[in-house]
Specification:
It is built from 20 helices and 25 strands. It is α/β, with parallel strands linked by helices. It folds into two domains: 369 residues, TIM Barrel; 81 residues, Immunoglobulin-like. The longest helix has 18 residues. The protein has an eight-stranded parallel beta sheet. Strands 19-20-21-25-23 form a five-stranded antiparallel beta sheet. Helix 10 runs parallel beside helix 11. The protein is globular, with a radius of gyration of 25 Å. A hairpin with a 5-residue loop joins strand 10 and strand 11.
Length: 617
């Protein structure tokens, strides 16, 4: 089967089982019927209105090959550039993103989330274990664009062009750590184990029996300038130093002083080390120090001042003390409002599927939203693993725990895949080893429909719309959209096409791209699907029915999913005021059978979206 015809044949096959509408409905066929359709003015839109496209600039598009080496010379260990390696820069840049805004907006995305674009340490790692900062999380200069990605002028051009289209731009920021610059004299191989505060308090050099240092320091918990002025020496656990050749590697220059870091060795990601340890060897900032807090308010506030970006995704939130966020977040929101960005969106990465733990960070730390790892886990359980839809009852019951309750939960960015965990297609392939590509495609579209029509703000991970699968997490899930030279990527079969990553992957006729576009159009047309309150009407204890009622702005929506591989027919209780339903997607009944009851039939791995002007009690 050739590349050109396979997507069309797949779409035809899916049409036969009742999933054709999400795959083949053109955008022009979706008629807005909501009381509050999506505003084209990005400045007036609330966070829950957006559809976010998340990409790594290095892996999305190479708009200017002249910056591939970042202006450096030498081999890959000097420049960080090796387009044949998944661990090094492959050549993507900001101009490439700018050149493909039509593609991103054509998918239905209204906001772009860029992985960090700040200047990184090009290469780090011990001999034989080197890799590059292509991902953006090894920052040295927080005030400039990484030259592998382009220039500040090119970043401005991208933001301005997105805004001209009515799209938002979210920056990915880091406050927990910097690149690995600081070394410890005790560990020549840079493999220092974590040393606890109990065994190595800041009041003693080298342990509780050591030399008294830092007299009067009251501990990191006393987050005042007066207290931290008494922290003079950073050598209480290890003896940190900065190699002379990197003495001024970090910008702003205050970041080069070890006194602003915890210097306790590598985190175990549990207990106190989750906050005080070096994340995978990266220099862990002492974010309890008010100097560090104000320093990052100044750094990131300046990016809002200069470019009027629309939001921040914050990396490694749970590895930073909560007091930092309680000061940082309101200061940044105030800065954005003063700069004319009233709906500035902040969402943090709290890598944990427990909704109670996620909610904690919105209440105790004051984050407006967090990435919804709980949602991802639930969809993975139900759609990939084949567990019952009743799994969602536990997830959504915790919505009241978030700051602002269920309204706060509606701001949570929901996602299926990401650059750390891996791609949803792989989760399905692993859980369903005998599943055909067509079956995987159906499950992928069903999962996307859940992301778009259940509460939250859907995030699309770049490449998912082109059937990327990968073989694992991290580097295994970071394929290039432009023609790749990485053999390990190009050997992988994709879903929905016979093409590979050896050629460019910007195909608007791919069945996943077309399906997502339709989902986005329907969501944009109906306020109940974007901002609506949510009530579970039915959730089966075996694979099958999940039905919900959503409501906002005078509009109600009945959303029904079938997670089974056979059709289902069922009666669903709806508000008594509902007498007629209008189909937004799928074969909805036009009228109720009796007040409070409607009969639906849903195809295998399918879904319906039916709207009504009636309100629930």
């Amino acid at each position: 089967m050739d590349v050109a015809t396979k997507p069309l044949r797949l779409a035809a096959a899916l049409l036969a089982v009742g999933l054709g509408a999400p795959l083949v409905t053109p955008a022009s066929a979706v008629t807005p019927a909501a009381a509050q359709p999506l505003s084209p003015d990005y400045r007036t839109r609330a966070a829950e209105d957006e559809v976010v496209y998340f990409l790594l600039p290095d892996r999305f598009a190479n708009g200017d090959p002249r910056n591939d080496t970042g202006g450096l010379s030498g081999d890959r260990l000097a420049t960080g550039f090796d387009p044949t390696s998944k661990a090094f820069y492959n050549g993507g840049d900001l101009k490439g993103v700018l050149d493909h805004l039509d593609y991103i907006q054509g998918l239905g995305a209204t906001a772009i989330w860029l992985a960090p674009v700040f200047k990184n340490k090009p290469v780090q790692g011990e001999p034989g274990q080197e890799s590059a900062g292509y991902h953006g999380y090894w920052i040295t200069d927080f005030t400039d664009i990484d030259p592998h990605f382009g220039t500040r002028a090119e970043f401005k051009a991208l933001v301005d062009a997105a805004h001209a289209r009515g799209m938002k731009v979210y920056m990915d920021i880091v406050a927990n750590h910097t690149a690995d610059i600081i070394r410890y004299k005790e560990c020549p191989k840079n493999d220092c184990a974590y040393r606890s505060k109990a065994d190595f308090p800041a009041s003693r050099r080298g342990g509780v029996a050591g030399e008294a240092i830092n007299p009067g320091f009251g501990g990191e918990e006393v987050e005042t300038a007066e207290n931290f002025a008494k922290l003079i020496r950073p050598d209480y656990a290890y003896t940190p130093y900065v190699p002379p050749q990197e003495a001024h590697a970090k910008v702003p220059d205050w970041l080069n002083d070890p006194i602003y870091y915890h210097n306790r060795g590598n985190s175990t990601y549990r207990g106190e080390s989750a906050t005080f340890g070096d994340f995978a060897g990266l220099d862990d900032l002492m974010t309890e120090n008010p100097k560090v807090v104000q320093g990052f308010i100044d750094i990131y506030g300046a990016w809002i001042d200069a470019y009027h970006v629309d939001g921040f995704r914050i990396d490694t939130v749970k590895h930073v003390n909560e007091g930092f966020w309680r000061v940082f977040v309101p200061a940044i929101l105030a800065r954005a409002k003063a700069d004319g960005v009233p709906n500035f969106h902040i969402f943090g990465e709290v890598f944990d599927p427990d909704p109670a733990f996620l909610a904690h960070w919105t209440k105790s730390a004051g984050l407006p939203a967090v990435l919804d790892f709980g949602f991802q886990a639930a969809v993975r359980d139900v759609v990939a693993e084949g567990k019952p839809p009743s799994r969602f009852e536990h997830l959504f019951a915790a919505d009241v725990d978030f700051a602002e309750g269920e309204a706060g939960a509606r701001r949570l960015p929901t996602f299926l895949s990401n650059h750390d965990m891996g791609r949803f297609a792989l989760f399905i392939r692993r859980a369903q080893p005998k599943a055909s590509d067509d079956d995987i495609l159906r499950r992928l579209i069903l999962a996307e429909a859940m992301s778009f029509f259940l509460r939250g703000q859907p995030v699309i991970y770049y490449g998912d719309e082109q059937g990327f699968v990968g073989r694992g997490d991290d580097q295994e899930a970071r394929q290039s959209m432009f023609a790749s030279q990485v053999a390990a990527y190009n050997q992988q079969a994709l879903i929905g096409t016979s093409a590979t990553t050896a050629s460019d992957s910007y195909h608007p006729d791919h069945p996943l791209y077309r399906a997502i576009r339709t989902l986005a159009d329907v969501r944009a047309a109906h306020v109940a699907l974007r901002r609506g309150s949510q009530q579970i009407l039915a959730a089966a204890e075996t694979p099958g029915l999940l039905a919900l009622w959503r409501e906002s702005g005078g509009e109600g929506a009945l959303v029904v999913f079938n997670t089974a591989d056979a059709p289902i027919s069922a009666r669903i209780a709806v508000p008594y005021s509902v007498t007629h339903l209008t189909s937004a997607l799928g074969a909805c009944p036009k009228a109720v059978d009796a007040p409070g009851s409607v009969f639906v039939t849903v195809p295998p791995l399918g879904y319906l979206v039916c709207t009504s002007s009636a309100k629930s009690p």
